[in-house]
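The instructor's notes for this session suggest beginning with a concrete chain rather than abstract definitions. Hand out the sequence below and ask the class to guess, before any prediction is shown, which regions might be ordered.
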Amino acid sequence: MKKTTRHAAVLVTVPNRKLGRKLAQAALNARLCACANLIPGLESHYWWQGKLERSRELLILFKTTRARLPKLEQLVLELHPYDTAAFVVLSITEGSERYLTWLDASVAHIS
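After discussion, reveal the predicted structure:
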């Protein structure tokens, strides 16, 4: 196990699989993440404009580096239909050395 301060996981919710795939492909093609997991079956309960809401959503889990976060956020917010899209960053504090090396290499080829 290797300690790290350079890596992050980002949680983004979307209304459907089509948008989830679009965001994942755009982020991967731009080398802003090494991996995007689409997790279906999410039921979200939240406050919106003074009312308690509930909706079916899909969660995208992006694995990336802290250096790529600003551009990843910009891409997600540009393509996302929500007024207030979730973009939550979680620090990765440890991971297998081979995985973290792969993650770095996967986002390194950006011009």
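Then share the key points. The longest strand covers residues 51-65. DSSP finds three helices and four strands in the chain.
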